[in-house]
Amino acid sequence: MKEILTKNLNSSQTEAVLCTEGPLIIFAGAGTGKTRVITYRIAYLLSLGVAPQSVLAVTFTNKAASEMKKRISDLIPGTGANTWVSTFHSFCAHFLHAEASRISLNPDFLIYDFTDQKNVVKDCIRELNIDEKRFKLSTIADKISRAKDDLKSPSDMAAEAEYSGDFFGTTAAKIYGLYQKKLERANAVDFGDLIMLTVSALQQHSGLLEHYREKYKYIMVDEYQDTNHAQYIFIKLLAGKHRNICVVGDDDQSVYSWRGADINNILDFEKDYPNAKSVKLEQNYRSTPKILSTANQVVKHNNVRISKRLWTHNPDNGFVTVLKAVNETDEAIKIAELICPNAYGNKYKFSDFAVFYRTNAQSRTFEDAFREFRIPYTVVGTLRFYDRAEIKDIMAYLKLIHNPNDNVSFKRVINIPRRGIGKTSIETLEKFARFKNMSIWQSVPFAQKVGLTKGPVKALNSFTQFIKDFSALKNSGSVKLITEKVITDSGYLKELEVENTSESKIKIENIQELISAVDDFETRLSDKSLAGYLTQIALINDIDSPDESKGKVTLMTLHLAKGLEFDNVFICGLEEGLFPIGESAFNDKELEEERRLMYVGMTRARKRLYLCWSTERKVYGKTIWNMPSRFIAEAGFQDESAEMEQNRKQSFQNRLSQGFNRTIQNGGLGRGQNFRSFNEKPFKAEILHTNAQSYGYMPPGGEITKDERLDNPAGDLSPYKIGTAVSHPIFGRGQIIEKSGAGNDLKLVVLFETGQWKKLLARIANLTLI
DNA sequence: TTAGTTCCGCTTTTT
DNA sequence: GCGGAACTAA
After folding, report:
1. Nearest nt to A622, CA vs C1'?
2. C-beta within 7 A of nucleic chain C, residues 123-162 of A
3. How far apart are CA A53 and CA A369, in angstroms?
4. CATH number of A385-539
5. Which end of chain A is flanked by fewer CB atoms within 10 Å, N or C?
6. pTM metric for this prediction
């Protein structure tokens, strides 16, 4: 086994793998083979005879967990599959189910997501007669979540606020208190509770703690820089006996402090475990030296970090460059031009490109431009499958069948489809329920007594009957059957069919997809119960969509980019106020987190990295002028941006004089389209996501071939086109990105592979087409 | 009760 | 400039 390891690992990776006993911290820089080290380390442990059941590996995302599981069982077929690899939340959910009786918890608990949480908070704020304007839903819901991340109860929060004379905090604590009561009454827990309840169970029941400590002799934590206080304590408790704890992370990639992550957990690991061994993985296998040194240069500006320096043996064949645009549309067009099929002599697939931005709102401009340029793209992460209204509706029915006391779900579907049960009816009923300390469901029989009119009473009764009719199926029938019955018998599907709009058709499609996801769940998992399904869904917030990104350019926020890699990366909107965002530049802590986010983005690039900014940008419908982001200067581009300003001004003038025309001849739209029309929102978002094949443009497999090159604009007979790859006797290979003038006066702006930009007179530049 | 209209206020979002 | 929530009219 040792030979296999050393053959496939470098020396520090090997060192980390072989160190199995005692606390170990692995500082794993971007692209240094972190997952490889974790999986090999587990494989090595098993090869030493450690029982797979006594190894616990914890991650943050389901994606990371399943990836790790797969790689372990690839490495060790058979026993490898028995190691316990899961997310923090999923582990705790299992724990709470298993130990429910010991800690007087009803094991049928539901898991509330953030939307559910906000709904409960809303109820609390109204019930307590608190000014909704001053105490915003999401702010309070967030504050409650952060409190749980810090293992703070409502009274802890109240005491703290009291002490510091914080009125807002005092009120928030009141809301938190009521919120918690409501959750208990509905037999629901939120994400924060999963961890917090587990921690307190372990703290209060020494028998339990002893048992789990003994069980998990080896513990590994991935992305340790993202752990919050509760998770930190949880791990500390579990590892308290054998102390074989190995954490892996990169403080430079800590970008979730706003979600409670505490970077000090990783920075202080060696203080917490004084005899800890520390290994730094610094050899990068992903990026070119130029990209790495630039990223290093940027992150070096942070004060709070563990010093490290990434290096690589990779060939130096890429570049980092700055792209300056005149406005956000121009930014998108310039990027589209670089991506469009002419780019780089057909060397790349669309899926080799990624566009990162700080805020989701920025994606729209790119969607418009890419559509115009016939560039297939996929926007990652905007609206997740299980967050769609129609899916949440169906899920609410299922939750209600499982647990009728779930007020959030009750209120969600009581009038969907419309049953004539309005706001006032529900409010009266809810008030009564609250007074009697019962759920809305339990108060339905008293509807008439409370003064509801005939119609609503009748509708309420038939609704509760409808839910009750599932009671037999609930325990014995398949979840798929229940789901199908809900969809049809509730009239939900019917209403969508009658609506018959493009939106309703998509909703129906999504519902069908939900059914196949349920089917998938039933064939894959051993726990086929409704309860099992609901837990599963609460913790896994997306369905697998393997081919989603195939042959498409990826658009996403920088946060979502963590862990991924692409040959060509565009980081956009690099402007003060947008990235670093808002007021973060005035707060060292926040600024450093923004800078880490920049570092994360930069280190995603394998070969080419573009730092893009725009002098002018529309924000909330108003045009604003921004300074270039300090991160551009920190990356060492003070001079270039000045030089390029000249080029850009010139090129924008040219564009203006050409009336922004660009003709696409072999795409579906054969006519010249004016770029101004971008803002007119030509299609619905769903249509934007259709596979590019439907345009007759992308061949299967997503490879770009010569035949699909964009043609010349009509009437332009010059061989020099925007996007054409050329070679220069001195500057080497490059690509035309701007052109102006004609004939003897034809000027070209060429972006060379070295990253340099040059404006050349075509007649004397001696360029050759390649 | 619901449909239509106006008004507000906007980072990031692993679970 | 857009979406959600709150208000208003029927």
Report:
1. C1
2. 132
3. 52
4. 1.10.486.10
5. C
6. 0.81
